[in-house]
TrEMBL record:
It comes from Spartinivicinus marinus. SUPFAM superfamilies: Periplasmic binding protein-like II (SSF53850). Pfam families: SBP_bac_3. Gene3D superfamilies: Periplasmic binding protein-like II. It comes from the Bacteria. Residues 27-235 form the Solute-binding protein family 3/N-terminal domain. This is Transporter substrate-binding domain-containing protein.
Amino acid sequence: MRILLFVIYIFLSAICVSCPLKKIKFISEEFPPYNYMTSDGVIKGIAVDVLVAASRLVNCAIGRNSIEILPWARGYKNVLVNANTSLFSMSFSKERSKLFLWAGPFAKTKNVLIAKKDSGIIVDDENPLTRFMIGAIRNDISHQLALKAGAKPNNFSYGNKPENLAKMLYKGRIDAWAYNYITARWIFRKLQYSSDEFEIVYNLSENDNFFAFNKDSDKKAVELLQEGINMLKENKGKYGVSQLEEIVSNYL
């Protein structure tokens, strides 16, 4: 039995050496269309498809069933403190740049403040962010950008899930919602809200999306995923565009 266990250990160790991505615990959140779980329990999205396709291209395949879905705040804390952990999709910012190792980019996100059209909300010098109650997910990029733009901590009402914040906005419990515009529209459709009832009242920033790794993670794993993403950008797909563009076009 000891010999068998030793052989299994050597075999698994060899896999990790030849395929360093297998060492990484991949964490994501409900952030459609970039990453989300379908009603039948399948993890899908732009970032998920990028991870699966890029890892296959470098002969170190990562399966969808190895990805864990957590609320953003828990996933963010996890990747900050645990080596060989990756969180996606994470928007790159100057403030975050030194906190993580990065592989990407693979997509762009437009981060905004959204309000109901009939609210009459205007954000300008006479109506700064400090006048409004803003819904946000703690440590989400839009939350961080709104703080940077002048909002104070007491201007925020937090939620763990974007659906909850969308409902709060719809019911008038918050004045505006700080979030990714494409994802917000996706969630409005899911909740059967008309997107025509909402509008962008403030542009926070446009950011690139990456896979973020804990700083003490195996750098070979980060480099390998980066190599796969680069190949997706360079390889032509069936319709004359890159394989990465094909993945994105499946969702947008």
